[in-house]
Design a protein that fits this description.
Structural class: alpha/beta
Strand content: 15-25%
Bound molecules: citrulline
Distance between the termini: 24 Å
Number of domains: 2
Helix content: 25-40%
CATH superfamily of the largest domain: L-arginine/glycine Amidinotransferase, Chain A
CATH architecture of the largest domain: 5-stranded Propeller
CATH class of the largest domain: Alpha Beta
Length: 408
């Protein structure tokens, strides 16, 4: 049966979502590598899995189809061509050397699709290989990774993002995450559910854009955070591509502080209704946006001539582009210290299941209370372990299909 994959908003009823159940890749985290691997602590893996299973169950109970990235990958790797592609990309790093690369290529080719998924996601450590011994294996430490683990796969939001009926394969800025998009690209290209019926925009080889920075404010209006992850050139490239494919009429480029606490736009602002956002109060008054529109079309996205407006307050620029009177900020009224604590714990990182229904971490009591007072149904989930990677319900979910808000 053909699917209507895609999303034209942040809040249309969520039909299908891609998640990643945390697995052995989290067991690779140690106090020596957690910073490099972008985790703030060492999660208790079985509890993280329980929390994640509860999150997935909550979504299913609300009628959402949950696709797991690893299931999709394993199904994709049933194809010889996809396997060969996955293996050569995973072994392309310059740290391996020819002897080890050749040995690993054979060993990976002999693995079953399930085993290969495990190796591509949890990685391979030098002390785990039995052959391929030579200069490189001898000189590397036994604990060095030959294929890096991908603990941040948990945050499926960042490695792909649907804009209407197209999927953008993103280009992740941090070295620890770069390989994630090799896997999402492979899934969207080769998995039978997507192959041949999924048009792609952007790509891992393009300028940096991360999905957590991309907010579909309304059909035709895309906001893109520009900060630690998405670069100015990244937003320009994405804007060109969505304009060329006529997926949007306005892209709002939104500068955000280049800090870990605000690594993506969705760490400070998410939508909970067609005209309401929950926003970190400490930035609400300073967040600005440049509206980018098309002045002149051309043959390709590089020929487009863009108009870039001067900076305006984000809520003002957004409302104008969305052609509504006001984009309301739910007034959480939190004192700056509580606001800072709850922002750090992803209080503003909600996942809308439909207009006025949002999944949020239970720990952010005050933000959640204020959301409820404003008429939003808050579906609370536990995230004490999940949160150690600094991501909330929105970060942990890639909507593959939402019911359209567009009426035409
Ligand atoms: N959209 C998001 O904010 N995703 C959270 C990503 C957390 C991950 N540990 C990272 O640093 O990239």
């Amino acid at each position: 049966m053909p699917h209507n994959h895609g999303a034209d908003s942040e809040v249309g009823t969520l039909t299908t979502v891609m998640l990643h159940r945390p697995g052995n890749e989290l067991k690779r985290l140690t106090p020596r590598n957690n910073d490099k691997l972008l985790f703030d602590g060492i999660p208790w893996v079985s509890r993280a899995q329980e929390e994640h299973d509860a999150f997935a169950d909550t979504l299913r109970q609300r009628g959402v189809e949950v696709l797991y990235l690893t299931d999709l990958l394993t199904e994709t790797l049933a194809s010889e061509e996809a396997r060969a592609h996955a293996i050569s990309s995973a072994l392309s790093g310059l740290h391996l050397g020819d002897t080890l690369r050749a040995y690993l290529a054979v060993a990976l080719a002999e693995a079953s699709p399930e085993e290969l998924t495990g190796l591509l996601t949890a990685g391979i450590r030098n002390d785990e290989v039995r052959g391929g011994h030579g200069l490189v294996t001898s000189l590397l430490s036994p604990y060095d990774f030959l294929i890096d683990p991908l603990p941040n796969l948990l945050f499926t939001r960042d490695s792909s993002v649907w804009v209407r009926d197209r999927v953008a394969i993103t280009s992740l800025a941090m070295p620890a995450r770069k390989r994630e998009t090799q896997l999402t690209e492979l899934i969207y290209t080769e998995h039978p559910r997507f192959a041949g019926q999924t048009q792609k925009i952007h790509g891992w080889h393009n300028e940096h854009v991360e999905g957590g920075d991309v907010l579909l404010l309304s059909p035709g209006v895309v906001a893109v955070g520009v900060g630690e992850r998405t670069t100015p050139a990244g937003v320009e490239r994405l804007a060109r591509q969505v304009f060329q494919a006529e997926l949007a009429h306005t892209v709002l480029a939104v500068p955000i502080a280049q800090e870990r606490a605000t690594m993506h736009l969705d760490t400070v602002c998410t939508m909970v209704d067609v005209d309401k956002v929950v926003m970190y109060p400490n930035v609400a008054h300073s967040l600005m946006a440049h509206a980018v529109t098309v002045r002149e079309r051309g043959e390709t996205d590089t020929d487009l001539v863009l108009d870039v407006a001067g900076a305006e307050p984000f809520l003002v620029a957004a409302a104008k582009a969305m052609q509504i009177d006001t984009l309301h900020q739910i007034d959480t009224g939190l004192d700056p210290v509580t606001a800072e604590r709850e922002q750090w714990d992803d209080g503003n990182n909600t996942l809308a299941l439909a207009p006025r229904v949002a999944v949020a971490y239970e720990r952010n009591d005050e933000t959640n209370d204020r959301l409820e007072a404003a008429g939003i149904e808050v579906v609370r989930i536990a995230g004490s372990e999940l949160g150690s990677g600094r991501g909330g319900p929105r970060c942990m979910s890639c909507p593959v299909e939402r019911q359209p808000l567009t009426t035409d």
